[in-house]
Amino acid sequence: MKQRTKTLAMVLAGGRVDELNVLTYYRPKSAVPFGGFARVIDFPLSNLMNSGLEQVAILSQFRSFSLINHIGSGAAWDMIGRYRGISILPPSTGHASSNWYRGSADSVYQNIDFIRYHNPECVLILSGDHIYNMNYQALIDYHKEKDADLTMVCLPVPLEKAHRFGVANIDDEDGVIGGRVLQYKEKPHQPRFNWASMTVFCFKPEALLKTLVDNAQEDTSFEFGKDIIPRMLADQRRVYGFKFDGYWGYTRTIEEYWQTSMDLLGASPKIDLERWGIRTNLEHRDIRDYQPLKIGSRASVHDSLIYNGCVVEGTVEHSVLFPGVHVRPGAVVRDSVLFFNNKVESGAHLTKVVSDVNSSFGVDSVVGEETSAAGQEVTVLGWDNHLPAGTVIGSDCTIYPHLRPEKFSRAIKNGEIIR
């Protein structure tokens, strides 16, 4: 039987990503709800669990309460025991380090002692805010086979979109499996190659630690893409690319989050939560204690993902509903994602809406265009908003959390931002 490599996984989970604006107003992006019951970070954590990797650190700093509450003891992912567990590592303020995490590389640099304590053979560093399914053991095996200092997971993107990513030029040393990284550019203005980094890195510990220490001595951006990877290439380290050909939900913008949510739906969904083996903490928000889904005798439900605790008496089409959502008779929800405990009153019409927790839509309110038109953009509501009866909000609008009812006394036009 092949002996597994001793691996320490470090999940970058703490940053706020402004492109998701109001959804990350009170939480890091990794804690944003996804899939009708889960959180975004459940995907990398479930990947780790399914890959047999049981020693995990989560690096978090921005409004971490919801994330810490969600992770709990780690038992939901079977990461609790004598030789396995999840450690949450916020920035320290002791004599050795006195700064907030200044970037992804700095968050790992500030925890060098943690890495040395565990003395791993490999350090797996990965983003906590992407939607994908991957067995990391294949990556680790390839990394060891190539005796690499760094192996980074990449997937091909259209060249015209490559400027949004860190991209690598990978040779064909191992065909569809991977190859040597010849060049790397972080978000180039005019990209010439298109293997996009998924922010999944497997490092040889000594190479990682030396590069982090060297990088910390200079005035840099403290990021893996901007600093660490180019530095390792410049130092002629053995840097390899591991080619990924599966689904990857980037979810950096509201539109991408919405589209990734829609990929849960359809006759052959691109995201198969059951087949992927996604786990979540069912104790968080008391998910396990909700009553079964109730669908009224006159309700209409089509191509939707609706979790326990919901009551549907109206129409729901091509939407994702989290526990506690109530759709009253005569209400219509289309192409939308409603987080925990949203209430949609009678006669309300929602189209292409993402609504954060504890919001309500008054009688006969209209949010988004009433017919889903090609090119129509998402309207997003921050949490704890209560729209009065008859409220009208257009498409591509942003509604900040906790607004007073008088903010909705007039029709909100397409593209408006209401604070």
Describe this structure in words.
- This protein is 18% helix and 27% strand.
- With 419 residues, the chain is an alpha/beta fold.
- It has 2 domains: 7-262, Spore Coat Polysaccharide Biosynthesis Protein SpsA, Chain A, CATH 3.90.550.10; 290-418, 3 Solenoid (UDP N-Acetylglucosamine Acyltransferase, domain 1).
- The strands form 6 sheets. The protein has a 7-stranded parallel β-sheet.
- Strand 10 and strand 11 (178-186) form a beta hairpin.
- Helix 6 (205-216) packs across helix 7 (224-234).
How is the secondary structure organized here?
Elements: E1 7-12, E2 33-34, E3 38-39, H1 42-50, E4 55-59, H2 65-71, E5 80-81, E6 84-89, H3 104-109, H4 112-118, E7 122-127, E8 131-132, H5 136-145, E9 150-156, E10 166-170, E11 178-186, E12 195-203, H6 205-216, H7 224-234, E13 239-243, E14 248-249, H8 254-262, H9 273-276, E15 294-295, E16 300-302, E17 305-306, E18 311-312, E19 315-317, E20 320-321, E21 326-327, E22 332-334, E23 337-338, E24 343-344, E25 349-351, E26 353-355, E27 360-361, E28 366-367, E29 379-381, E30 386-387, E31 392-393, E32 398-399, E33 417-418
Parallel strand pairs: 1-4, 1-7, 4-6, 9-13, 15-18, 16-19, 17-20, 18-21, 19-22, 20-23, 21-24, 22-25, 23-26, 24-27, 25-28, 26-29, 27-30, 28-31, 29-32, 32-33
Antiparallel strand pairs: 2-3, 5-6, 7-12, 8-14, 9-12, 10-11, 10-12, 11-13
Helix pairs in contact: 6-7
